[in-house]
Amino acid sequence: MVIQAILPLHNLPLRPAPVLLIGIALAWLLARANYVLFHTLVELFCVIIAGMLALTGALSYFQTRNRTLLLLSCGYLCIGLTDLWHTLAYQGLQVIGQGANTATQLWVLGRLLEVTLLLTVTRPISNRAFPVILLTGATFTTLGWATILYWPVFPPCFIPGSGLTAFKIAAEYLVMVCAIAAFFLLQRAPQLPPPFLLYLRGALLFTVLSEFFFTLYWQVADLYNFAGHIGKLISYALLAWGIIIQSLYRPLDTLYSQLCQQQQLLREASEKDALTGLLNRQALQERLTQLWRRHTAERLPICLLMLDLDHFKTVNDRFGHHSGDLVLQKTAALLKSQLRQQDLLARYGGEEFLAVLPGATLTAARVIAERLRLAVGEQAVELTDGQSLLVTISGGLVQARRGENWEQALERADQLLYQAKQRGRNRVESEEGP
């Protein structure tokens, strides 16, 4: 509860508590059977995670140019190598070094490198400061290795029979304080990706817990040492999960979302008339086929209203095609504003519009058609040269008949539109109900 109050961990892979407890129990059995093997597996896992973090940060730099991620990459490369030397120097393997003290010294060096790195990335890094920080970190790491492995001047950290030295305990508490400081300073770090930052801060909490246990052990294979390694294991597991989220899942999820958005935009573009923004002829026909099938099967009323601007050729000839396009755009917007939400409207031809009125009887559709006609005739279109132009519109209205398809109904609407033109224009002709 305390951790969740400090950090929103609801997305972290900590929810299956039984799995975590079973894992710790199995790790404890392995540690009792062969502590060197347990220690080697834990440390190699952490080395691999440090390498993954280094590789991810380096690769992402070529796309994001994020100096903070690149610095994390270089820093965790040094930390991973230090932990590898620590593993090889551990009592029982002792490939390098002089036993438990050397392994403990390398452990302290690795943790000091880690908290120093995390404190450094809590603030944005300038172009001028970046090479200086990089060179300083590389120099400090190299000197640390040298003073432990070649020049034995690094302070002793573990004395067999006596346990931890005062320097080791003080260093662990310093690491804990720095980790806590980094946790709060990283609360707002815009230079780091938010998903990775969440897991990085979670890892810091377990780093503090791990370091606390490492101040208590007396033998290299006791319970406190085991608990400290479990804390480090969980800490690096969170880093690993953050790497997966940041470098694999999130980019793939973002790519998929972008592809879906692009597909949606392409679909919408293929369905829209480029000039008016209304549905184009093909898109309307596809939707009308589905609407017609459903309404006729359920014997629901549906009407078609074919509209055509009057004397539109004269508008083009007198005012130019640009003005004609403006008239079409304004008329389309006006017609759409007067229709119901469930109605469909498309530019069906040059200056022709087709409205589909699902659920409307012929009587209700006449009211809608008359409203459209009056709206177009009463609102002047303002041209770019300052002139105002009044246009009118004529229409043919039909209701679906039993047994006919929408193409047949559209032919009847087109015939009624022709009659409206013949009878003086600026009118809507409709036939008697079916």
Question: What name does CATH use for the topology of the largest domain?
Answer: Rhopdopsin 7-helix transmembrane proteins
Total E-strand runs: 9
Work out the oligomeric state of the chains in this entry: single chain
- The span between the termini is 70 Å
User: From the helix content, strand content and strand pairing, which structural class follows?
Assistant: alpha+beta
Strand content: 5-15%
Largest sheet entry: 5 strands, mixed
Helix content: 55-70%
Number of helices: 14
Describe the structure.
With 434 residues, the protein is of the alpha+beta class. It has two domains: 2-260, Rhopdopsin 7-helix transmembrane proteins; 281-430, Reverse transcriptase/Diguanylate cyclase domain (Alpha-Beta Plaits, 2-Layer Sandwich), CATH 3.30.70.270. It is 65% helix and 9% strand. It has 14 helices and nine strands. The protein has helices at residues 2-6, 17-33, 35-64, 67-89, 100-120, 129-149, 166-185, 194-213, 223-271, 281-297, 312-319, 321-338, 362-378, 406-422; strands spanning 158-159, 163-164, 302-309, 344-347, 352-358, 381-382, 388-389, 393-399, 428-430. The strands form three sheets. It has a five-stranded mixed beta sheet, sandwiched between helices. A two-stranded antiparallel ribbon has the order 1-2. Strand 1 and strand 2 (163-164) form a beta hairpin. Helix 12 (321-338) packs across helix 13. The longest helix has 49 residues, at 223-271. The radius of gyration is 37 Å and the shape is elongated. The chain starts with a helix and ends with a strand. The relative contact order is 0.07. Residues 1-14 have low confidence and may be disordered.
